[in-house]
Amino acid sequence: MDRRFTAVPLALACVLALGACSDNNSEAQPGSEENPISADNPSSHEELQNPDGGVITYGNPIPKDEVLHDVVVDGKERKSLFTQKNLDFATKSSVTREEYESAFLDFAACIEDRGGWIHYDLDSHVINYTMTSSSDPDDYCYNSHFNFPDSLWQLTQYDDGAERIQFYIDCLNDHDVEPVHAAPDEEKGPPQWKQDRELQDQIAEEGIDCGDFIESFYQDVPYPE
User: Fold this and answer.
1) Which of 21, 105, 148, 216 might form a disulfide with 14, Cβ 3.0–4.6 angstroms?
2) CA dist., res. 138 & res. 141, Å (int)
3) What is the number of alpha carbons within 13 Å of residue 99 lying toward its C-beta?
4) pLDDT tens for residues 120-169?
5) Coarse DSSP helix, strand, coil percentages of the chain, rounded to the nearest 5 percent
């Protein structure tokens, strides 16, 4: 069984056009790291939402034998790899928690309705989830329902690194070394990043092996047999 979970580096690299990251053409394509698609670039979105081939994909491959979605863009009916609800976030600059969770639950329902298995935690700031490798092998459910809200949330929100910071603090204490920080900062983002970096530096200077940090969510996941 494999794990798959939302990850900030993927969203940052791909911005709002996840599938275009694999383009190997020498000329930078919309959605590549050299020419990212952003929510404040309407001309790029206009081109991608009115493709010559007629199917809106944002560079993602169309899985074989999958049903495309009917959407309306600028009053025109089109076929799309994304649902209308998902596609509407392509040109937005923010997403609410309610919208983020709703899109995720659509994604999870798609997997379960197709006989797949997914395990998740809606209480984590960036939703943790894992699923079996056969549950969404072509990313059809993810692209249909979740990729734009997911990218937006990760681009505009800081994840909570408190659990990882506490892991480093506990490791230092277990080795009778006083940590440079006694507790994780309650403020996510730069304050926690600073703590994380300074604690890792201290661990390296002390020559301590703390092992690998694994989020509690991923420990003892009840994968189906």
Assistant:
1) 21
2) 8
3) 16
4) 999 989 999 999 989 999 999 999 999 999 999 999 888 899 999 999 99
5) 40, 10, 50
